[in-house]
Amino acid sequence: MKLRVIAACLLIAALMIPMTAYAEPVVAPASETQTAQPEIPVEPTGYTPVALAIKGGSAAWRQIDRGLAFLHISGATARCSATVVTNQKAAITVSMTLQRLISGKWQNLETWKKSATGTTLSDERGKIIEPGGSYRALIRIRVDSDNLTVYAYPEQQPLLVGDVDHDSRILAKDARLALRISARLYKGDAYAPLCADYNCDGAVRAGDARGILRRSAGLKT
């Protein structure tokens, strides 16, 4: 009789063990990580060529809120255009240089400059050209201590100078690529050396990599 009572007690105790002890452990979903790098989205602007839209509020551009730059060629006329909008009243300068590829080198055809004090500045200029050549616009925007340099090609997305890998951001990795280009250790695509030439003097040197690195850190260049 005692043995039956003991056996019954053991069976009841076994049935009372929580089933969760045998359940699979619940794994919490991994948290999403966010990058702190400023993004520079490229968006259509309504013109035939795609213009460069700069999103402000980043460490790289403290004063610039929005910027647009494009080159449009129709027949024998090339038109350069640039617009900048600032976060607050500031001294703004826009410089546009129309260039043509001659004997393998980009030659300046004409430069226009416009300055004002305020929160916005736009400029658009046209020039009669020889049809069939290769042209681009070198556009520089300065807002107090902020500097933005863009190469605009007709019917193509403009290239942000300093963005060597063309991901629409200027990061430390772009400075590394520029340094490798200066040492002839890296070629990239046909546009990589253009973007690595940060001071736009026609050559990629260690100083260009230094300028890109400072820009990636939001420092004055």
Describe this protein's structure.
Helix 2 packs antiparallel against helix 4 (206-216). Residues 10-59 have low confidence and may be disordered. With 221 residues, the chain is an alpha+beta fold. It is built from 4 helices and 6 strands. The relative contact order is 0.13. Strands 1, 2, 3, 4, 5 and 6 form a 6-stranded antiparallel beta sheet that branches. It has helices spanning 2-15, 172-182, 192-196, 206-216; strands at residues 64-74, 77-102, 105-128, 135-143, 146-152, 159-160.
* Total count of strands: 6
Strand/helix succession: HEEEEEEHHH
The DSSP helix count reads 4
- CA-to-CA gap between the ends? 95 Å
Helix content: 10-25%
The whole-angstrom Rg is: 29 Å
User: DSSP strand (E) fraction?
Assistant: 35-45%
- Classification by helices and strands: alpha+beta
Shape: flat
Give average pLDDT, whole number.
75
Major β-sheet annotation? 6 strands, antiparallel
Uncertain runs with pLDDT below 50, 5 residues or more? 10-59
Please write out the topology:
Elements: H1 2-15, E1 64-74, E2 77-102, E3 105-128, E4 135-143, E5 146-152, E6 159-160, H2 172-182, H3 192-196, H4 206-216
Antiparallel strand pairs: 1-2, 2-3, 2-4, 4-5, 5-6
